[in-house]
Each structure stands twice: as C-alpha cells, then as structure tokens.
Amino acid sequence: MDTTRNTVLEAWMAEHGYSSNSLADTVNRALERLTGRPGGLDGSSVRDWKAGRVTWPKSATRKALEDVSGLPAIALGFVPRGRPSSTPAPRQQEDPDMKRRTLVGGIAAAAAAAAAPGTASRRIGMSDVGRLQKRFAEIIASDHRHGGQLGIEQRAAALADEALNLQNAGSASQRVRSSLYASAAAFRSSAMWAAIDGRRYDVAKTHMREAQALAEMSGDQAIKFRIWSHAGAMYRHMGRPADAFAANGVARNLHLTRRDPLFASLGLARQGAIHGAAQDRTGTRRAFEQAQEAMLRADPADYRPVWMLAFYDQAELDSLALSAHLALGDYSTAEFHAHRCLSALRPHMIRSRAITTTRLAHAQLAQGAPEAATATAMKVPAEAATQHARVTRMLQEFGAALRATAPGSTSAQTWTEHSATWRMAA
C-alpha cells in the first residue's frame, strides 16, 4: 500500500482549523444529511487519510467530505484506486462517480511536485496545468467561505498572470497551451467575481475584458459561459437589466447549454433573477419553471468543471428565485425560497448563507413581522456583516427599514444594540 502522506489534506485542515476529531465529526454530520444514518468516522479515520493509509475513501464518505470542504476529493490529495499517483487516468476509464467530480487526473501528485525552474528548453505539460487547477479549486473554496474580498481578487489575478507566464516558459502542445489559457481565464473570472461581490464594478469590468479575451484563445465553452454569466450578474447588481439580459444571453446561447441541461438551468435561473430586477413577473415565473425543469433533466454523473460543482444546485436556484421575488415585492414567495435555500445549502457556502439570511430578514420585515425579521438578521455572522460589501449594505438597508416601519420598538432597539457590537468588532 502506498503510504505517502496526504500533505494536501493536512494543509487544508490546518488552514481551516480542523483537528482529526473535529473533521471526523463534521463529515459524520454531512454523511447523516446524505444518507439518513449517522457516520461512523472518528479521529483515527482521518489520521489514516493524512498518513496515506487510506488513499480513496468510500463514495459516500468522499461526497460528504466534498460537501464539507467545497473541493473535489482529488483536490484534497486523494488518489483513485488503481491509479498510480504519478500517472493520470485516461478519461474514458473513469467511473461515473469520479468523472463527475474530477479536475484533472493526478492532481494530488501534481500539487505536491515542485515546479522546475523556467528555461527555454523546458517542456510544459498537463502536470503544470494540474497544479494551476488545484490552486483554482482553492480560490473557489475561499470565495464560498469569504466572498468579495480584495485579497481573493488579487490572488486570483496573480494566478492568472502565472498561468500566462507559463506560456513563455518553454515548449508545449496545443492542448496544453489551450488549457493554460483556460486556466488564466478561470482565474481572471474569479477575480472578476470577487470584484463584483465586493461591489468594485469598474475593476470587475477590467477583469471581465481580460477574461473574455483569454477564454476566446482557450476555446473552452464552460469558462466562456462562466464569464458571460458573471457579466449578466454584474449588470443586474448595477441596475442595468438590458445589459444584464444581453450578457446572460451570450452565455445561454453557447452550444454547451444545449449539451448539458445543468448549464441551461443556471442560465435560465440567472435570467429569472434579471426578470425580477426588471419587474417582469411573467418572465420571472417562466424562467424559473424552465430552470427547475432543466435541473431535473441534468445527469449528476456528467463531467463538469469544479466551479460549477462547487455552487450550482437546488439551493442556488432557490437563492436566485429569492432575489427575484424580493425585487418584485412578492415577499411571501421570497420567504419560501429563502427557507428552502437555507435548508439545502452545503456547509462550505458560508457567504451564500449570510446573503440568504439577510434577504430572508428583509422578506419577513416587509410582511409586517419585525420581531422575526430582527431575530433572523441577528443570525448573520459578524465577519460577513462587516467584511462583505453586499451583506453590509443589505443589513444597513434592513436597519433603516426597521426603524422606518417600527420606530421606537423593542425590535428596533435590539437591532441598534446588536449592530453596534459589529461596528465595535470591526
């Protein structure tokens, strides 16, 4: 048995503050949500993972660990059975469970290997792409945990430059060069999204233009979809629905959406959110009906990129529906989607939970329930309330609406005192 230590998992645990026992407990809870039965892991199980005595946990355990971390098992340093750690498996030999979540075969070994110094004679290969894609998975995880942070934007932009620098570091096949452009576009699109999430729209547009050019050079349909779909979300947040429809339309018209219903579903759900912002009730209803139908047609075993697997599911569809119905003033429907979203959100979606909770508070207040709304708003963590631009603004708007609708009430006083503790902590 290969007993090479899983240093990738160890590093991830250290970064996120997990001991062997606490990670086992967290994965057990995720297993219970998945299977309806409590998991049987303990600290020794995790120590076996770290020591390399178990290199590929059982499928249910892997899925639970992926839900907890927001990363595919390969990006956490695990290696599929029967695959030498230094040799990528051919795509056609992957079982459906692996095919659905893989980034690039052998990514764990690639992440641990040191990059050779750049020279004119160096041969750039898919192992270099694998290292970049592992870093991309880390960016995705940071975004779902913190969201909108300038540090995430800067790190993603720097990694985009690193991917481009590899183009000039040596010789490479056309496949490798296309993959490097795709990696650079993926990083730049993450920088774009971090800027959008932090309401830094001028910077986001600069990232968008660079990402679009890189995506065209890569020929990668999935990353093109991500960039144009992000552009649609950006213009929606900026209050420019016509531009939002146009940008999202580019994403929706890519051939990828006809081949994979899950991409079609995401495009339709974001279209529904734009219809909501444009006060089009009929368009909103139709788009979300079609998005739900497309999601049900999607095969969960199909291969999809890590950024898609990490966030788009029923919870995200309900989150977009919540945003649309809140914008329409249909507060009871918005509250329904908020509760459904919160019940289905995966543990790593910390930023999304804060946004959804804040929107739920708005929906409850608009229905004349200030006590319930205040209790909901107080569940938003202080870190999100003070460090995430979108959440901060929505909570400020909540406070203003609460004071306007229930001036002098116990709820208004409670909220004022509670929000003051956030300001002091910041």
Helix/strand/pairing category: mainly alpha
Cα separation of the termini: 50 Å
Q: Which H/E pattern describes the elements? A: HHHHHHHHHHHHHHHHHHHHHHH
What are the low-pLDDT stretches, counting only 5+ consecutive residues below 50? 83-120
Summarize the helices and strands and which ones pair or pack.
Blueprint: H1 7-16, H2 20-35, H3 43-51, H4 59-69, H5 96-101, H6 107-112, H7 126-145, H8 150-167, H9 174-197, H10 201-218, H11 221-237, H12 241-252, H13 256-259, H14 261-277, H15 281-297, H16 306-311, H17 314-328, H18 331-344, H19 350-366, H20 370-377, H21 382-387, H22 389-405, H23 410-425
Fill in the keyword field for this structure.
426 residues, mainly alpha
In words, what does this structure look like?
- This protein is an all-alpha fold.
- The chain is 71% helix and 0% strand.
- It has helices at residues 7-16, 20-35, 43-51, 59-69, 96-101, 107-112, 126-145, 150-167, 174-197, 201-218, 221-237, 241-252, 256-259, 261-277, 281-297, 306-311, 314-328, 331-344, 350-366, 370-377, 382-387, 389-405, 410-425.
- The chain is globular, with a radius of gyration of 22 Å.
